[in-house]
Amino acid sequence: MPFIASKGCYHDNIFVERLWRSVKYECVYLTAFEDGHHLKQALNRYFRHYNQTRYHQTFDYQTPDEVYYQQPMTLAA
Fold first, then answer.
1. How would you classify residue 37: left for phi > 0, otherwise alpha for psi between -120 and 50, otherwise beta?
2. Residues 6 or more apart whose Cβ sits within 8 Å of residue 28
3. CA gap 2, 5 in Å, rounded
4. Which of 71, 51, 75, 77 is nearest to 63 (CA)?
């Protein structure tokens, strides 16, 4: 029988909640965006940083790209 979590169970979305907390406190709350286009650009930069250069304690202080691709990633221009 598959695991079915009850409504409001923190196991359902704990990883997504952690991600969005980081996005809000490290990007969104720090900038007054002019419009949706500037927000989209900032989020693209942030997620590139989050995956390629930001070290994560959960991953033994490696980046997600290093963990999932098994090699250091270089930043795209």
1. alpha
2. 39, 42
3. 10
4. 51
State the pLDDT at residue 43: 97
DSSP helix/strand/coil, 76: coil
The 10s digit of each residue's pLDDT in 7-54 is 666 676 887 888 899 999 999 999 999 999 999 999 999 999 999 999
At residue 20, the pLDDT reads 92
3-class DSSP assignment, residue 28: helix
Listed residue (18, 61, 17, 24) closest to 42, CA to CA: 24
